[in-house]
Amino acid sequence: MKILLDEIMYKKNLSVNQVSQLTGIPHTTIVDIKNGHSSPRMDTMEKLAKGLHVHITDLFESSFK
To answer: Which stretches within 1-65 are classed as H helix?
Structure first.
């Protein structure tokens, strides 16, 4: 499953610091997710969706949506 955080950030013209402020997720965690070095837990996905004003399913690419 591919996390689409980088693409959403690009579309919304948001920096890592801005996403961190909007979501309450640490800067380093955002960078790790964005670069594909870490897979976020479900609670982190919920924080991202809420902070970025997207559906949680918009955050990942899957053939099972």
So the answer is: 5-11, 16-23, 27-34, 42-52
**Whether pLDDT at 50 is above 70:** yes
**Residue 8 and residue 52 in contact, taking contact as beta carbons nearer than 8 Å:** yes
Q: Taking the model in full, what pTM does it have?
A: 0.91
> In which residue are the tokens 């402020």 written?
21
Q: Which domains does the chain carry?
A: 2-60 (1.10.260.40)
From CA 39, how far away is CA 3, in angstroms rounded?
8
The Cβ of residue 48 has, within 10 Å, a number of other Cβ atoms equal to 24
